[in-house]
Protein 1
Amino acid sequence: MTVQQTSPRGLSADQAALRLAEHGPNSIPAPRPPSPWLRVLVQLRDPMIVLLIAAAILTASLRDFTDLTVILAVVVLNTTVGVVQEIRAEHALAALSRLAAPHATVRRGGHTTVVPAADVVPDDVVLLQAGDVVPADLVLFDAVQLQADESTLTGESVPVEKDPADEVFAGTVVTRGRGTGTVTRTGPGSALGQIAALLSNQRPRATPLQRRLAGLSRTLSIVVVALSAIVAVAGLVRGLPLPSMVVTAVSLTVAAVPESLPAVVTLALAIGAHRMAQRAAVVRKLPAVETLGAVTVVATDKTGTLTEGIMQAERLWTESGAATATGVGYEPAGELRPPGSGAVRRLLRDVALCNDAALRPPPADPADPADPADPADPADPADRAAWQPIGDPTEAALLTLAHRGSVDPDELRAAYLRTHEVPFDSTRKRMTTFHEQPGSDDLLVIGKGAPEVMLTPDVTPYGDIARAKDVAAELSEAGYRVLAVADNTLPPGAPRTENGLRLAGLVAITDPVRHNAAEVVASFGRAGIGLLLITGDAPGTALAVAERIGVHDGQVVTGADIDAGQDPTAGRVFARIRPEQKLGIVRAWQAKGHVVAMTGDGVNDAPALRRADIGVAMGRGGTEVARQAADLVLTDDDLGTVEAAIEEGRRIYTNIRTFLRYALGGGLAEVLVMLIGPLLGFAVPLLPGQILWINMLTHGLPGVAIGAEPADPRAMRQPPRSPQEQILGAGLWQRIAWTGALIATVTLTAALWARSAGAPWQTLSYLVLGLAQLGVALALRRPTPSGGRRLRFLDLAVAGAVAAQVLPLMLAPLRDLLGLQAVTGTEVLYAAALASVPGLVTAVSRLGRANRRRRSRWLPPYRPRSARR
């Protein structure tokens, strides 16, 4: 692709539109979905379906068309449900991918603006800074200490230094510095697009939960096949024909193993991901949906998560006086009280020049998503109606402060041209810029950073440093984030140095605590989830926020404390934490056996996000690096959304266990009936067609409906499950055993009564066995938060299954197909009464366990020290 020379002003809107039409969107084409026939073949490879097909071939060869019809109906139903669910899951994941699409900062028509990455075109001028994912292949014409992580392309984990005229490639990550470049290749033509083309046919792997359940299914298959073989051998010993017993054994095997389990799990995960997206949590990795339910610790950043993320520079201090700023958010409107003196204007000049941010005004019409003033089109209309920061929010707050002090940053930047800079990084905690002095050959040096770094004899030897330290400490204790600012003038030819500066003043910045932060922390406590506050701010700032939200436990652990060997699990509030220490904190809590969710938004959070069991990135204010490293992206940057996501994870895991109890209990009942029935004189308690019909009805829509049940209202008032808990642990296999035994007991009781009364015992056995399982499904129905009972999918599914269970008794052709006999109304009522017993016992048992849980007092694993004393 030949790239034309592009003006530093960038393309015009018309030029960008023409290139977009010519080259297409800057996106990698989605892989072609498999054909319907391929989807069907994939479903038919399932071991249980293969077993059914083998049974169908066998029954066809024996001319047993009755059982053949029922078996084929089961195959068609299961295959259809599987194909439909696969398509729905693909659509849901595609929608989530669109929600998570990154944006790019470009210069068009001389103005810096943000556009969707898909709208980047060849010859666009793209601005890069630390934390950005490069949207397309670029050639740099400006680079300041720029490094790029190219591990996605080369596998090399060490960042690569980039200079002007170097290329940077799509999908790589800017880890340091800033730069500007011209787009050379987009979409499929980019380096990332070429690699993606090689991977387009790769299929996603099963989640860990699905693999564990697949292992469970294999184990169950072996056990049930062995039991079915025993049934077949017992029948042969009694003189029953071989073909009939083979079909019976195969049908019993299929009925006893929940072959719909993969569909239920996939549906539960897909519905969970969709529900999370509706609640502002975009799932990037599907296993995160289930893992969220096991979270025991949430480690969260302060800024933008516990706080509003709208930085406001409220107070400033100079040696000649102090002032307070008025105004809301990043809107320049406001004023300083009292009005700025010469020293204050000097301080405002410095914070405007030593600054890489910009302010974006709201569009002329916030309701118009096509307004060119805001091409990024934030989802929240309130965001579209407000001034937005471009770049670091703290630096944007400093620009807003300058405006409120009647200092125009744009005019200053045009007058004081920047010649060199030493960018801010989290280790140095400072930034330095060098500027030409208007009308002079001198250089203006400006530094800003943390007070403990700036207010030292080496860095700032000139000024009342002792007084400045006292003021900074007072502001920090009041909950402010404090920046110290200093400057100096260097004569021509003097070496450029960051030290030897003169104190200009202090700026106190605040980030209001979110209105729901304290409520969310309290909810975590009730759910047995500990919350850790981790920030790079000063201890006083961290302590002030912690006390407001109820996290404070009497101490603050600093980065220096950790360096000195303090155990990170000894505290819950962490201040002045470096990036590598965040990673150490996560590892320490994991070493204690906890499942850790980590929230973050910056480049320095990415290692901890990747290490955590669940990485949660901020979608609005966070960097693309953080989003790439995370499992979950919050589009509203609200910690309350994490609470909702954890509740959703608990719902999914609970529903899967509920389905296992229901399906395995019913399967066990069928096996017990077929094993014990002959001992009671019933040669063949149920015919193969009857078993398969019951299995199709009970494991079909009712099973899927259990996977879609809403969350338990008590879910967030219980401790998290143990990470070591097996899928059938915590007493589930015992409940499966007595549920199956109870259903088998009432079924065999119905058969004994019917035989003694001269009634069709096999038909009543069929009726009781199916209805009893459906009654258990209703008994396992989740209670509603209001305590009432609203009609839900499970109710409709069970009602439909009951109708289909009774229908063969009314229709002679279907009755003959299944080998059933006509029964009287009294016999049906008797069967229904017996079938209701397992459901009633299950409901009473669940109610008793719920009452015992309410009476018991459990202690959350992370109590404050004050509560332990």
Protein 2
Amino acid sequence: MAKQYDEAFAFYEQLRHYYLDNKGRIRKNYKRITLKLLDYNDRSVNPDAFLRPPQFEAFEMYVFVKEFLGNKPMYEIFDDWRKRRGVFADASFYSRGQETLFDTASDKQTATLFKQMRNVSENYPNYIFALTMGLGKTILMATCIFYEFLLANKFPRDERFCHNALVFAPDKTVLQSLKEIPTFDKSLVVPPEYVSVIDQNLRVHFLEDTGTTLHTLDGSDFNLVISNDQKIIAKRKHAETSAAERLFTMPSGLLSVVYGDDADADSQDEGDLILNQRFAKLCRLGQMGIYVDEAHHLFGKALERSLSDKKTENGLRRTINLLDEALTNKGSGVVACYNFTGTPYVQNKVLPDVLYAYGLAESINRGYLKSARVRKYEHVRSESFLRSVITEFWNTYGENKVEGLLPKLAIFATQIEEVENEVLPACEKILAELDIDTSKILVNTGDAKLTKTEDIHIFNNLDNPNAGGNDKQFIILVGKGREGWNCRSLFGVALDREPKSKIFVLQATMRCLRQIGVGQQRATVFLSEANFETLDSELNKNFNMTVSDLKDSGDKRHVYQVRMVPPERKVKLSKIRREYRLEKRAGGESICFGLDKLDLSRYESHVYEKASLTHDLSLKEVKADFSGEQVVYSEMSLVAEVARQLGPTVTCLAIEKLIEASAEGVEGVLSYVNKHNELIYDVIVPRIFEHLFEVKVDKKAEPVEVSLLKAPKDSAYYEFSAKPELVVRRSESEYDDCAEKSFHADTYCFDSRPEKELFNQLVYSDKTEEVFFTGMFTSGQSELAIQYVDPESHRIRSYYPDFYVKKSDGTIELIEVKGDNKIDDETVLAKAAAARDIADASNIAYGIIGGNFIMENDVTAMSLKEAQEESIALARGIEQTPNATLFDE
């Protein structure tokens, strides 16, 4: 099984700090051509430099690791850095990152990370450059390759520089975008006096099709090979060759003449022979540098697993390793493998070989990408969704051109049949209603029936003002949300149905963020409720943020390393087990569904808008007009649908009698369910079930011992982000007299001022024997987790109370701090009910205290029950009465 990384420390950040602190001395070790190339692309030196700052910074690190650090693998660089040896031995070279990271236990703290980095290493250096989509990874890759060839031409004996470059793309879509490497104006990134050196020596081999032969001269230099084929090594045929195949197979002697001595002697089909020929030709080239574009996609579903466990070595990595082995046997291995991807994170974990990273929020905040507003649609059917999206897009963008290009909307479908039967007819109908020419629609599904060759040509020229693609504004797609599809004039993305791939939602959303025109433009993302939640989740996994966390630089959060303070604190609680039994009721009275008393607003379609991805703006409801697309039920079809939900234990006849005898009657029920079909599943079926059956619950409490904080696996610390004013440390002098009463972690990162205030009140109080802040450890670090049923999703989730307090009289309390506006929140009430169950069974107290009350009162001067009741009264704005129960048990 692949190892799971729990390593939040980002070495690439420390390495960047080191470079910036010692930039002057480092540059003295560079070649003269290198210095000219760097200055040409540095906007602080050349105001007209083409590279964006993130591209240039990545290029700086590329040069730094090659010419100053000797092209060493990342684990060796880290080992030298942590042990302060080699180039890091000089005391004047110590970086600020190094000084803040290392302490008396530095060896123990960094040993785990070193082991991880060494385990993922190959026989050649492996580096990852993580730049958000739209920042120009292709141009960065081209700049690096041109740099390599210039230096290799000037210093042919220096083994650090690549004489040949092999570029891998994940699919044909990305392969097309890589054509930009040899075709774009080299003078934009290379000083004019050196452009001719590249043009005269560069040999480009673009292997677009499987059958394309690689024509390279053995032992030659400056070959740029671009291929979308991961498995360039032929597979031998194991099946017996037929007589017909033998008849049309060329003689092996002729094959040797055509393909060289490395051609397989065994019978293979033509495709296999050509694939093997490619590999054989590559093995005859020296000083090979390998560049992997869109590495997350190309290395498989889990880049972390592909890079971290050689036992799960996939086709591409295996091919690179075999190529390195073959080249090494001939005297020259792979110089290095450079992986280009969109994020340094996998499941919130930093990949160990990252050399440079630039995030999504930074890119938007600094104007390198469009800003975006995200609109979430609730309870909206497909045609209503499309009508609202197209209308909103047309009213917002219309035919207002930017750089001579019309704004475009990408409408993603999940299946070809969905396009043919639903999306395309609906779009044509809606455009006709809005008096928009339906010729503005372009369909690209990959199916020849719906997408012709001309359509593909148009699709590839959407950003060409002189091509037919610019006339298309409504692009209906199946797939195409992944890497490689570049359309700067894309201003909107619409995604209604849930795709099979969760990451697709993030990739499709980011399609419209590429910058265009003067100043920062704003795109609009239209998502169903489910896809909105998926986007939020994928942003968290891939960029360590959420939609609401995408704020500008005004959010002054810092990252803190948090270590467990031994010994591990364990406490005793009771775990509640429930056994459920289903018993039939006797029946009797008629059912009252209570439809006339329901709040039907939850079933009405709404549209919410977030005006910007990067600003801390709330979702706002906007006006929208949706046509009802409800199924019209008759008595018979309604009975059938309810029976289908309840299963074979309840007959249709019994259901029919119950509905007819209900307080609303058949007509009354139909009048509601035909207006809101969801009522069948939310009200009718559950009420009939409750009328016929009773669920019996038996509860049993079992004592358990839980850890308040476990030591991190494969690391010396956890990492948290917080505002400095909300952070307290055990080492601070103000806690010298009371540190032993708390701090099961050396650093507490609070979410709010009331949390910090309550901690200080408790830790300084003589009535407190122990107090531990547990609310920050919500990702499996603590076992103090209380399971509850989320009232919105109806899923079981874990809740972590903010404080575990042991009073001097021996009583134990679990305390939650909440903002006054959250006191009556449905989710908060569900958490409180579950926590009280555990607390009652464990003979401890549980309470919620409002934030304003904490800031205005000394909570330790009263009981938890008193503090809770008074704080809730304050939050609700009512006068406190003696013995009032303000918080429902």
Protein 3
Amino acid sequence: MKRILIPLCLVLGSHFAIGQRSYQFNAEDRLFREGKELFSLKNYPGCTDKLEAYKKQSTDLELIQESDYMLVYAAFEQGREDTPDLLKNFLDTYPDTPHRDEVNYLIGCTHFSRGEYEKAVFWFKEANIDLLSLSTQEAYSFRLGYALLQTGERDEARGYFARIREIGTTYRDASTYYLAYIDYAEGRYDQALTEFSRLKDHPEFKEQSLYYITQIYFIRNQYDKVISSGESLLSAYPDSKNNTELYRLIGHSYYQNGDQEEAIRLLSKYVSSTEKPLRGDLYILGVCYFNKGNYNSAVNALKQTVAENDALTQNAYLYLGQSYLKLNEKNNARMAFELAATSTFDKQVQEVAMYNYALTIHETSFTGFGESVTIFEDFLNDFPNSKYADKVNDYLVEVYLTTKNYTAALNSINKIRRPSTKILEAKQNILFQLGTQYFTNTRMEEAIDYFGQAIALGSYDAKARSEAYFWRGESYYRSGNFERAASDYRSYLSSTTQRNTDMYALARYNLGYCYFKEKQYNEALASFREYLPLEKDNKAATLADAYNRIGDCLFYNRQFAAAEENYSRAANLLPESGDYAIFQKGFLMGLQKDYRGKISTMDQLVREFPESQYVDDALFEKGRSYVLLENYNAAATAFDALIRQFPQSSLARQAGLELGLLYYNSNQPQKSIAAYKEVIKNYPNSEEAKTAIQDMKSVYVDLNDVGSYASYVNSLGGSEQFEVNEQDSLTYLAAERLFTRGETEAARKSLVNYLQSFPKGAFVSDANFYLGSVAFAHKEYAEAKKYFTSVLESGNTKYRENALARKAEIEYLTKEYEAALESFKRLQSIAEGKENREAAKLGAMRCAQFLGRQNDALTAANELLKETKLSPEVQTEARYIRAKAYIGLKEESKALADLKELAKDTRTVQGAESKYLLAKVYFDGKELDKAEKELMNFIENGTPHAYWLARGFILLADVYITKGDDFQARQYLTSLQKNYKGSDDIAGMIEERLAKLKK
């Protein structure tokens, strides 16, 4: 550092003394002399003009240099923008100038005035202070010290300020102030306080000195002095720029002294007067609001403090949780306690937070990702000696009984070596609930397993055990195991003590169906009759159906009058689905030889139920009745109508045979032959075609025209395809007998042998169908498809429907969705049985969805939903696919009805996704409050399908981001990040949103 010489007699001037040389001026130097005179008088514009004029006519290099010096100095004093460049050019032009130190100083001053302190320090240090005028040295020292202070070189700055304080005049008080500031900045508070105290009455430095004195009191925790000094400053300087910080210091001090009202007053002023309030003071403000019962304000303050991962955030989350509890926002409280509980900065805070977190989960029945069980376990593991431990043990038992995350609960219980009776009771209930959960999602094997475990556990929870029998019976029934289903229904009926319930009535009804499916008609009859008085709803579809089944049982027992009476009751109870009852009633009239009554009843069915699956049956039976009444014309009309309207029906083939026989008996041989030929043409290779060939032979014989018959048969490829020889028949029947006995491998060999021996045999279609069935049962789908395709290509209609159903199913299972869709559509057009018709619609709907054909999926779903007596599972799937199709077609409003219905049961995967999609539709439509409401309900009710719940959390965060509530959004995302265990796209979605929130 250059030596500083600042005499006590220093008088600071703004310009320098001009060179020491004595000049001898002549007349030619008059302009120079006048310019210099004006310069000494600080008339800078005047001197500039004179000196510029002088330079133009002078050749004296020494005086020109001196002129240039005075010109750049004048530019400096006038504050010209180009001063730094002029000064630097001067040095470049005159490198040996005696004014070098003065010019370096001037350059430093220009940068100093512009706040360019690093450059100022450089140029100041280029000047030798000893060579500056005495009037300049103190200003030089002060400005260099200040520039060093601004560039962080406090030690070096201190030396300059200290020297000025000792011997300076103009800058003595300012230097004292900056020395005090340096002491303050470096933590030497005693020295700083002494120095600031010397200046507290100085008019220029009073306010700032008192301000720093207040800061020092605050640092020393002298809160009374902070309040006294700070309040005085606020009163004396109401508009000071320091007041924001004073509000903070005084407010904090009031808080430390226990005066929270005053703390709120000052800290709220602090927060409102700064864009970025400090987290610690926001925390104190939030705590004060909480203690005063102003919980909304507490939340607003505290939620601004949780951006960092530290102890302050942990404490803030604990207070946030308590505040939310007071506001009855338990879901927000749960998340706040969770975030405090997962931080480890303060173990005491963590203990209290974890306990409160566990309680909020317990009280809100939150079932998101298993927290309701594991949090109590974690608490006992982390804080075994906690004062809350006994309460937590009691709560854990309650959680087992109320949780909806049954898998987590069961895993927890299974860890207990010696479970109490209460725990075992809870376990039995959980096993039952797991069974119903899997049942709801159509996973029958798992459902049966869990119901079985619940039953095997004993009678800790008698109600759960009893109902497990019922639902296991339902599971067996849906799986087609009617014998085991019946056994479980009987066990439920004998074990339950609640006999006046819908479930008890339904068990009787379902037991009747088990017997009915097993053709145990007497037992079925008794069970359906026991069901009737138990049904409370006189309009229930099951009640009408029970009367139909009672009628069927009586019919099989040949109690026709009683059967007819029950069919009538069914039709009266549920007229809109009374087609079956009307058909059966008419059929019974025929059995009792009331043919006219039968015809009238069949006409009623056709008239009232034109879309019924029994219309073709009704037309056929009507034609048969007219035949028995010998009204052949009317019979022919009925048969013709059947063939025309239902050409794919098996009854149409029989009707063709009936027409041929009818015309033959009424002595109309040509019409008879024409009718038989229609059957052969329309249904080649069918059993009816073979029968038509044989019957037509009799007609030609009566006409004595055997030659025409032979010619016709030969045109079809010879008679061998219509006549069965004995070896053909015996070979096939032997193979068929093996198949019906279940000896599938032996049957397969025999059937293949038959096809090789009789490639054009009478039973080729039968053999191909049975071989296809064997291959399908062994999951040899390519082989099975080949055989079923052969059946379809043969034209034989005997197995056409079932072969097509199997082919479509194979194509679906092997993901040949295009082909499967066409097969299902074809099946839908020819299916006579309810099961195949429903399966065709269901398959077509699923294929259309997989292919992304929204319109086809929509049509198929609508067709399927027209079916009566759809199982709840199929109805749910159809609604789901219809809703998805509407969304895919950008017609979200049409999807709302289905989404709302499906979202009622989030136990199913379709219900869980629909709940999410419903909220998404609201969100996309800018209905943010509706979206939020749906998602909060989703979170509160829970679902076993964690992925869709996680998507719900993310969508809820999006709702809050859109609303501008980043705090809430961050809470939900952070909570999800900590608790979601899936390895899918959820983590990426969370990270993406958290990154945006951070920005």
